Structure prediction request, 168 residues.
Amino acid sequence: MKKWIEAHPNLWQFILFNILSNVSTITRFVLTWIGTAIFVSVLQMTSPFQFLIFDYTSAHSNGVGGFVTFLIAEVVAQAVNFFVQKNWVFKSNSDFSKAAPKYAVLAIVIVVVNLVLPGHVTELCVGRLGLNQGLASTIASVVNTLLAVVVSFPLLKFWIMPEDQKES
Prediction:
């Protein structure tokens, strides 16, 4: 295995990125389940919510509770992901004060997209496909996760946490 890793370091890094991204993915899923249970089911925070590009107004989008759930899940998952990727995947010695703001830009883009999509995905799953709220929320998280991988790996590897950074 060690010889294969040495022969294919970029492929190994991508595999490791995907495997270790599951730390933040698990964080996202757990917080989505907890948030849906608390904000939607228990507290009934299902009033329609719309602010700028965030539209949680459909009958099946979970309203303000859905928005709050995904906001908390995404922010925490992105914070976890920064340290996992920097320390374990890219083993980057990039200056934290330079890498963190770049990652924040990436995370904001990912969080905004991941807050916009769930309302639409949940509406599709519940309203058109007839799935239950829990499964619809899980599917929305899967869509968010896949999109985040496609966008974040190249940006992390080449812009935010490039290898062989000189210590400043």
